[in-house]
């Protein structure tokens, strides 16, 4: 497999994972696996949460695709595995470090994108139960959240 095609598949997988994450979050985490996700919607769940089990749910297919793809020279599968892993890393940085600040590597930012994803996630967490949620994605958020953050920035500038 040509390296260019490998990169294209990896990046396509990364972007497709946002849709898979949205669907998983909306219909599985806020559905039949709510008992694993519920503690994530509590005010102070602690450093470790049952919700952290979803790391394995996504890591296992990534690992299997990489391992089996490399062993059997099915590089398309390996590229998919690396794309899932890259999304997992982005998810970790955005969700755990930037949004929830479980790791205090970055505390405040005036960056519009960071403020927007934090606001969208805050709107998601205003719903304490599994019903009537909003903003189930992670890296891409609805236009209304961008508008709210930009409006807030303009008000502060005046």
Overview of this protein structure:
The chain is mainly α and 158 residues long. The protein has helices at 3-32, 34-37, 53-71, 75-99, 112-125, 143-157. The protein has one domain (3-157). Helix 3 packs antiparallel against helix 4. The chain starts with a helix and ends with a helix.
Q: How large is the share of residues in beta strands?
A: under 5%
Cα radius of gyration in angstroms = 17 Å
Kindly report the average pLDDT value: 92
Structural class: mainly alpha
* Helix and strand element order: HHHHHH
* CA-based shape: globular
Number of strands: 0
Fraction of residues in H or I helices: 55-70%
Total count of domains: 1
Q: pLDDT below 50 for ≥5 consecutive residues: which ranges?
A: none
Instruction: Quickly count the helices.
Output: 6
- Main β sheet profile: none
Distance between the amino and carboxyl termini:
55 Å
């Amino acid at each position: 497999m040509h390296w260019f095609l490998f990169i294209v598949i990896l990046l396509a997988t990364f972007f497709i994972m946002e849709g898979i994450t949205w669907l998983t979050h909306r219909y599985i985490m806020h559905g039949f696996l709510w008992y694993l996700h519920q503690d994530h919607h509590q005010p102070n769940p602690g450093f470790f949460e049952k919700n952290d089990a979803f790391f394995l749910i996504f890591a296992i297919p990534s690992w299997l695709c990489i391992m089996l793809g490399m062993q059997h020279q099915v590089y398309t599968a390996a590229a998919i595995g690396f794309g899932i892993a890259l999304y997992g890393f982005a998810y970790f940085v955005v969700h755990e470090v930037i949004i929830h600040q479980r790791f205090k590597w970055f505390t405040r930012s005036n960056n519009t994108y960071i403020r927007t994803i934090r606001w969208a996630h805050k709107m998601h967490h205003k719903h304490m139960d599994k019903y009537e949620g909003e903003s189930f994605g992670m890296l891409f958020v609805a236009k209304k959240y961008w508008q709210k953050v930009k409006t807030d920035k303009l008000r502060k500038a005046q």
